[in-house]
Amino acid sequence: MSLPNPFNTRSTFEANGASHAFYSLPALKDAGYAIDRLPVSIRIVLESLLRNCDGKRVTEDAVAALAGWEAKAARTAEVPFVVARIVLQDFTGVPLLVDLAAMRSAVDKVGKDSKIIEPLVPVDLVVDHSVQVDFAGSAEALAQNLELEFKRNRERYQFVKWGMQAFDTFKVVPPGIGIVHQVNLEYLAKGVLKDANNTYYPDTLVGTDSHTTMINGLGVVGWGVGGIEAEAGMLGQPVYFLTPDVVGVHLTGALQEGVTATDLALTITELLRKHKVVGKFVEFYGPGAKALPLVDRATIANMAPEYGATMGFFPIDEETSLYLRGTGRSEEHVSLYEAYYKAQGLWGIPEKGAVDYSVDVELDLSSVVPSVAGPKRPQDRIVLPELGDRFNSLLTSPVADGGFGRGEADLTKKVALAPHVGGGKQETVSEEEAAKADISAASINEMAANRPTPDCVETPELANGSVLIAAITSCTNTSNPSVMLAAGLLAKKAVERGLSVNPLVKSSLAPGSRVVTDYLAKTGLQPYLDQLGFQTVGYGCTTCIGNSGPLDPEIEKAVVDNDLVAASVLSGNRNFEARVHQNIKSNFLMSPPLVVAFALAGRVDLNMSTDPIAQDKDGNDVYLKDLWPTLTEIRDQMAAALKPEVFKSLYSDFTSQNPKWNEIPSSVGNVYEWDRESTYIQEPPFFTDFSLEPGTIAEIKGARPMGIFGDSVTTDHISPAGAIKKDSPAGRFLTENGVDFVDFNSYGSRRGNDRIMTRGTFANVRIKNLMVAPKEGGYTVLQPEGTEMSIYDAAMAYKERGTPLIVIAGQEYGTGSSRDWAAKGTNLLGVKAVVAESFERIHRSNLVGMGVLPLQFKDGTGAKSLGLDGTEVFDVLGLSTDVKPQQDLTLRITRKDGSTEDVTVTCRIDTPIEVDYYQHGGILPYVLRQIIARN
After folding, report:
1. In what helix (H) or strand (E) does residue 627 lie, and over which residues does it extend?
2. In this protein, which residues make up the domain named Aconitase/3-isopropylmalate dehydratase large subunit alpha/beta/alpha (predicted)?
3. Where among 632, 652, 679 does a domain terminate?
């Protein structure tokens, strides 16, 4: 069989003394394309089009369109991107596996071979989102949390193990290994891959977590998609997206002493949000980018969802090779990697003027200063010394202005707790734990014994601004040895001064991989973190996604009863309302060493430059500058961080390293045997009454508003996440099905059961439906009766009446994690259209993927300007089978008094393939019909 050779680009390159096949991008110059002027990220996507150019999925016209990319052109063409592999985390991976199982069941029911449903590209699922911080502050916390994780999730893990045997290309990294993005960076990513025809090509991917972009720091093109898009990708569909603008960020200078990669990432997040990079590629270049270590690049790339970009890409150079070697990839592979990218003309960080970008942004790294972000959004950066004043200002600012609406008296309000409340206890350290430290366990424990006992241990007090959770967590920072070592060094200096963490603080350390534990142990820093209560609680995505676990019941009761604005500090990437903990309203992102510092201080309403953090064992004030490690101190420890033999050992033979995983039984067979009594895994209704014929596109008539929302409604607000409340529709459902409250687990762990997830959609305790303002939570008003009830109950009442639903929203609708259940739940509630002032990229795509119509108000128009109150009836006119991407439609508003108003809206079905998805009722029915037709 002859292989395709579009534009005569099939060629060879030399590596390791042999000749290897590839599709040459430089060869496109002979066809008249200025390949050297294209952004590096565009060129890597272009290679995929070249290699997969079969005249069907990818045409020569598509190749030519992307090869002729112009920096300032209008964007109307779609790119059919065939990715090399797919990564999943378990919160999104399990429902994706449920959908695949449901597709096999649907195929089996129509008499076809169920094995035609099979991933066509490698799929890796990393089980990392299920561990919760139920236990913290003790040496036993890790084992206790892991034990509870396996107990809670046994049924889910049995299902995952079924998937491992049922699908040939489906691999699993079991619990207790690390966070998906860090595992991807340290282990899964190869940089260059080879197909069955011995053709080499770039490592590219999509992942079912928005922070898949972390891999961009390694020069790998990839980003987060919803599970819905990922399923289509793994079943052979290209990932379609509009040809993007590429924003070039020219980095110059170097970070100053005392400034971390986290500070840089938060600064870039603020900067690029202002430049409105949503839906665009961002590419970093220039001397500042070239000088950044790979781990710093990964920290910046990880935050791409926070600045809104599709990617935050760093091109390939010597630093990427250095990282591959340091993390255990073979010398032969690294040599081939270098030879491939040099042959493609993709080697090296571009200088200014070498590449054409749609927009150029400048940043001098020397201008970056220590920062935090919050209290509700990651782009709201605060210069560190200003945090105290900023918090107090927000405390008394109106809610409408982003504040907390408290009075002046709340600035000094104190709430006394019972004397025993709070930790108070600090861990003693064994000789074994301290063996590799440059100090004996006895010395550390003596320091602990000599530290002053704060007054608050005897009579602990809570106030607005009290830190109740301090978590070193999240792939963003735990992947970066420089900030992790800085945290350890700061802890060491604090212990040596006799300091202790405020006893009301729940402190925890959740490394992104076991490699972190190895180097913290080898540098002798872990015992000091242990001494301050930062014991390892698990290897997974914990506090950053709401798996922070419970607070002391008396502390939580005091917070709720007194309506306190308590704080969390975390080294994460997300701090949306009710994400970290439902009753902690103020959440600040920061570097790991700052997390330790604020845990010591126990409050956020202070100036870290001028106010003391605490007093030492001699009663002297201790300031942040007294504890902060120097760059030299950090660099002295860095040699222990990247040891190839450690990576090779820890990323081998997961089975023998995880006996609990081995104990989990698995069912067998190609078609899953659904258990109708299960409260974790159920066959979803997406293929009920499945027909081989697509539906039609028609106007929406007589829709009632399910909710009217303001700006920045996130997927955390929409999608079920965090704890399940006992009195919620989902909680009542579990109780009715014999599940005790103690066994409710989280919404994330029950994403394989649509009965629970639909009940939890739009049920966030902090969501603000303006139809029931000022009340918060998942409530609406059933019309025309005007009866207030839960959104789920109202949706079911409307469904019985045959009334379609509509959602009205403001700007940036659907920001946050790429939770497919935010779209699935919207669909299952009966919502036919969402009309917003603007959409975040992934959620808009997911809505179309679930057959929900996204519509966008024209500039200056919205719920407020139209005076909407929820009593209206809506029609969407002009919608038909020949609808065109991004065409104008009419939204007709019929008010309570019978008057009507027609408003022009943009149909945000953005590409031709999305028209097909929408007509078929979503991407999954479309793909299933395609597969059955082919077979």
Report:
1. helix 624-627
2. 69-602
3. 632
CATH of the domain at 387: 3.30.499.10
Distances in Å between the alpha carbon of 113 and those of 100, 119, 932? Answer: 14, 15, 10
- 905-921 mean pLDDT: 93
pLDDT in tens, 153-174: 999 999 999 999 999 999 999 9
Which residues constitute the domain of residue 40?
A: 6-81
If asked whether residues 422 and 513 sit together in one domain, one would say yes
Burial class (CB in 10 A: 0-12, 13-18, 19+), 663: exposed
CB 78 within 8 A of CB 913: yes
DSSP string over 342-389: HHTT-BSPPPTTSS--SEEEEEEGGG---EEE-SS-TT-EEEGGGHHH
In whole angstroms, what is the distance from residue 561 CA to residue 544 CA?
25
How much is the pLDDT for 737? Answer: 94
**Nearest of 780, 761, 765 to residue 715 by alpha carbon:** 761
Both 420 and 560 in one domain: the answer is yes
Q: CA-CA distance, 751 to 93, in Å (whole number)?
A: 9
**How confident is residue 901, by pLDDT bands cut at 50, 70 and 90?**
very high
- 3-class state of residue 441 by DSSP: helix
Task: Quickly state the pLDDT bin for 453 (edges 50, 70, 90).
Answer: very low
* Rg of the chain over all Cα atoms, to the nearest angstrom: 27
Within-domain flag for 907: yes
Pairing type for strands 239-242 and 78-81 reads: antiparallel
The string of pLDDT tens digits covering residues 298-333 is 999 999 999 999 999 999 999 999 999 999 999 999
User: Angle, nearest 10°, between helix axes 141-166 and 90-109?
Assistant: 30
Q: 3-state class of 295 per DSSP?
A: helix
Place of tokens 């909680």: 731
The CATH number given to whatever domain includes residue 889 is 3.20.19.10
Instruction: Indicate whether 725 pLDDT > 70.
Output: yes
Please provide the distance, in angstroms rounded to a whole number, between the alpha carbons at the two ends of the chain: 21
Together in a domain, 702 and 556 = no
The model's pLDDT over 756-791, given as tens digits with 9 standing for 90+, comes to 999 999 998 889 999 999 999 999 999 999 999 999
Question: Do the Cβ atoms of 879 and 853 come closer than 8 Å?
Answer: yes
Check whether residue 538 and residue 613 sit in a common domain: yes
Q: Would you say the C-alpha torsion 473, 226, 763, 711 has a positive or negative sign? A: positive
Does 607 share its domain with 706?
no
Please indicate, yes or no, whether residues 502 and 625 belong to a single structural domain of this protein: yes
Classify residue 797: in a domain, yes or no. Answer: yes
* pLDDT band at residue 904 under the 50/70/90 scheme: very high
Last residue of a domain, one of 612, 632, 652: 632
> What pLDDT score does 476 carry?
87
Q: How far apart are CA 296 and CA 499, in angstroms?
A: 30
pLDDT score of 1: 61
Strand partners, 763: none
- For 141, which DSSP code? H
Cα separations (Å) of 811 from 128, 632, 712, 808, 856? 32, 45, 6, 10, 10
Structure confidence at residue 21 (pLDDT):
98
The encoded tokens of residue 892 equal: 């007709």
**In the prediction, which pLDDT does 410 show?**
92
**Euclidean distance between CA atoms 19 and 119, whole angstroms:** 30
- Return d(Cα 778, Cα 771) in angstroms, integer: 11
Are 489 and 591 in a shared domain? Answer: yes
Q: Give pTM, 2 decimals.
A: 0.84
Tell whether 904 is covered by a domain: yes
Burial of 332 (0-12, 13-18, 19+ CB in 10 A): exposed
- Are residues 702 and 588 part of one domain? no
Helix runs in 167-211, H state only: 180-183
What's the count of helices (H) and strands (E) in the chain, helices before strands?
A: 34, 34
Total domains in the fold of the chain: 3
The verdict on residue 324 lying in a domain is no
Nearest to 69 by CA among 326, 258, 281, 226: 281
Q: Which residues pair with 686 in a beta bridge?
A: none
Residue 316: DSSP 8-state: B
